[in-house]
């Protein structure tokens, strides 16, 4: 199995990209949300390839690459840059600092696998897997969204796309107001970082109006463009997304029989460990049964919150606490 270290400060990018790599069973993926953590992981483990965001807070991909390539044990490891600013001169700039290749965001599965194929060790995939075909006859006409492009990025899995969009709009519902407050306080660094994150995640999910507004905000606060009404545009686009009735997002998962709780917790733990996108749906079926066990409701609420952010690592730790709480509750009966 081919091992890949994936580094990006956006959890959505990490999870979608991990999905692309893991679904065929050819890759094992370790994710890190910042370059410092990635360097710590590399101290005790080697990988066949590293995929790293070019622009991250604190330490960016360029500095991380310099440090990795300075290590004789890591020098030969191919590093692929992720960038939202793919221009004709980017490849040369990345190569000059030691990166081996690059991918433009939003990432598509075929492009990701094509780049990795150039750098995989012997025994890797010969060619990119064939993506699931997207049928045009059942694409939802959703304003402000490029649904066809987004479905290509999630292998044609509609239920997955609707859920990701729902999670995105919930998690970022107040982001425009937070940006406005940061601008008023003069914290342009925070605004630029938030705009960059939203731009990448929105583009991946086909939320083209939101991505365009976030890009304008980022360019404005970085001094690359004149100030305009981009923040208002972001507010309007987020409100339109919030008002959309996304297919499947209002339906509830079937409730789980009480006797199956232990097995369901085990299956959910496995899904969380693998960063699978069906984990939240599995949890939705588990929650009513957990309520019947009379375990601490705050544990269930904390797990719900982590899953809403797609924070699978934290959710897995919370699930372990819930597993113990359920066992304790059963022991008292």
Described by strand count, sense and barrel closure, the largest sheet is: 5 strands, parallel
The oligomeric status of these chains comes to single chain
The succession of helices and strands, N to C, reads EHEHEHEHEHHHHHHHHHHH
CATH architecture of the largest domain: 3-Layer(aba) Sandwich
What's the shape? globular
Lateral arrangement of strands in the main beta sheet? 2-1-3-4-5
CATH fold description of the largest domain: Rossmann fold
Arithmetic mean of pLDDT: 79
Residues in helices, as a percent range:
40-55%
* Number of β-strand runs: 5
Q: How far apart are the first and last residues' alpha carbons, in Å?
A: 46 Å
Overview of the structural elements:
- This protein has a 5-stranded parallel sheet with strand order 2-1-3-4-5, with helices on both faces.
- Helix 3 links the parallel strand 3 (49-53) and strand 4.
- It has helices at 11-22, 35-42, 61-69, 90-96, 109-119, 147-153, 158-171, 175-184, 188-204, 208-221, 230-243, 261-273, 279-292, 297-308, 312-332; strands spanning 2-7, 27-32, 49-53, 79-83, 101-104.
- The protein is built from 15 helices and 5 strands.
- The protein starts with a strand and ends with a helix.
- Mean pLDDT is 79; it is low at 122-140 and 250-256.
- By secondary structure, the protein is α/β, with parallel strands linked by helices.
- 37% of the residues are buried.
- It has 3 domains: 2-119, Rossmann fold; 147-243, Up-down Bundle (Four Helix Bundle (Hemerythrin (Met), subunit A)), CATH 1.20.120; 258-332, no CATH class.
- The longest helix has 21 residues, at 312-332.
